[in-house]
Amino acid sequence: xxxxxxxxxxxxxxxxxxxxxxxxxxxxxxxxxxxxxxxxxxxxxxxxxxxxxxxxxxxxxxxxxxxxxxxxxxxxxxxxxxxxxxxxxxxxxxxxxxxxxxxxxxxxxxxxxxxxxxxxxxxxxxxxxxxxxxxxxxxxxxxxxxxxxxxxxxxxxxxxxxxxxxxxxxxxxxxxxxxxxxxxxxxxxxxxxxxxxxxxxxxxxxxxxxxxxxxxxxxxxxxxxxxx
Length: 228
Known about the structure:
With about 230 residues, this protein is α/β, with parallel strands linked by helices. The protein has one domain: P-loop containing nucleotide triphosphate hydrolases (Rossmann fold, 3-Layer(aba) Sandwich), CATH 3.40.50.300. The chain is built from nine helices and eight strands. A five-stranded parallel sheet has the order 2-3-1-4-8, with helices on both faces.
């Protein structure tokens, strides 16, 4: 039976890295909501749409994009994946109580995952890391414009200008700016972290994993939790 895995943690905790490792080695589909939104709102063909331009302003400033908009596009993609019988992994999404549980009009993503995959096959992971350490880690992160690989350097003096994997240009994402990261951390603590408490109330186990060690060590712990 396919599984749905949701990985939580503050910005810079390594959620995307762990989700990618599951996708690359265990056949999960990584639905990266942040990356999907970033591509959508920065696409030149979408700039005439006021809803998308507003989402771009929110994303680039570190605010959370309007939950109704995010839930709509995320739910549509999730249904397609679940109906294809693939396992899915999310890195930090759903990000608000509304996105997770919805309201009387719109079904939340947590509810959708439970319905599509079964409650026992929906696994919640929490990567535990000091947010300020995450900021120090991410200020030296570069992302390839071509293959989208994220690369961390110990400091700016060792950073390359091109991707060591494909040769594409390495850039600093808008959302990795330390000022923007501070805003994102505040948003996470106020709007995303409460989801964990509500999930516990609904009978889900939140699996805490130390997010500070090297990614391969974190991944070992993740695989133990998932029993894969």
